[in-house]
Amino acid sequence: MNPTAQRNRFLAFAFASADLLLEVGNDGIITFALGAAQPLSVTDAASLSGRPIVELIALCDRGLLEHLIKTVEAGQRFGPLCVRIDAHNGQDQLMLSGCRFPGNEGVICFTFSYELRSGPAIATVERDAHTGLVEAEGFEAVAREALQSARKSGQDVKLSLFSFEGQEDFASRLQDEAAEEFLGQTGALLRAESFADAAGLQGDGKYAILHTGEAKLETITDKIQALSKSLDPEHEGIRVEAGTIALKSDMSEQDAASALAFAVNQFSTSDNGKAGMEALSRSLEVLMEETGARMTRFRSMLASDKLAFMQQPIVDLKTKDLHHYEVLVRFEENISPYQMIRFAEETGIVMELDDIILKQAINYLSTEGTNPAVKLAVNVSGRSLSSTKFITDLYRAMTRVNFPRSNLMLEITESSIIADLEQANRVIQKIRKLGHQVCLDDFGAGAASFQYLRALTVDYIKIDGAYIRTALKRRREAMLLKAMAGLARDLDIGTIAESIETEDQSAMLLDLGVDQGQGYLFGRPSPLHMSLKNGRAA
Q: Which of 182, 219, 189, 197 is nearest to 68 (CA)?
């Protein structure tokens, strides 16, 4: 075959998924460049020849390229990886892929794509400044995009977790420069072996990557251990334990990513690093299977009559008049609603529960014959509030039927962290403009409470019951309650206290400036006759 025609075919193949093709020698110098180079602040791609490739990349990602040039073997591919560049035209990220062709080991090929085809998460997630790895909070979104990409291309993806034993003592022996080198090279190694840059830092000494079957797990652990010994003044280094599981294809990308993130989180918070590679792999596989089974069971409950809707009154503390009811959900007998909802939040399926409860409450309030004086408050997870699909469906459900808008309040729970507060506030204001009030639930329970109050304009805050239960015994809690009530009053925000069980508590809260109360003193949860059948309230 004509060599020119063959080369043209390879070039066409490369540019079908990339914008710039570079050939780079083992010394890191560009020997050939073809394609669009304008985003790199270069008008002519050919002028890149003779320049070190790392000059095109931001300092934070240069270690990754240097690692690839040194370690990629003949026939090995890598990427896509999201790297940052120093440019003047606003384009500061691109996707990097490449390979080293057999028979031409002196050259490594890089392709740059300026469109972030792996999806928005890979370009927007927070990354650890020392390793370049995805922070734990963003790993699920990146993993979901990687799984979607893998399935489209017909590739099987595995999950590997790494636990570094003795890292704390190891770090204490290193100078700052050596510590930075270890973290930088470790991050570069894990990112280079990952699929679609799905490599994350999960906690102190714990890491996770998604990768194809081409990644050599033992090689990764050996390299990290050897690196640690070479930098350690005492040449002890660390011990790396690792485990790998294949991800089953019978789950959707969303469910697989959610189950994966839940399993990784359980791993990162447990002390199982000493379990050994084989035991760790088994535990991961079991955990993934159990998570998938629990998700299936949860959805089964949502689709059946195993949900019970309850109502608990919230009263004006001054007049003791009923103000509204909070809608509570109860699962089948002997299943803790707290544990079920926490699991649902951690795996993302809480959005399905929130969707059902909200739509049933809307149907209940809009059904002919429902007392127009009934007002309901429904919990919405912070995780649901971060979902564009959930908010779109909610807004559609709110506007397609007529009912008194002020009769439905949303309580935003703080148990699931809201990452984008600006976006969340835009959603809240859109809901408030319809006439619905919004309450910030669990106020004071988490570190983010005042950050939320600063960023979100709401109508009420509900003070966490832990303060109420101890305020009569501890002056400190009473003063905190008074300060919260005063701050809310100054911001023109109403206050609700939960877990009120005695008249003394009620009187104290009124004296401290709290407006409304909820608890056994005013009424225990009682059945609210909403049915899931046919999507209508009974």
A: 189
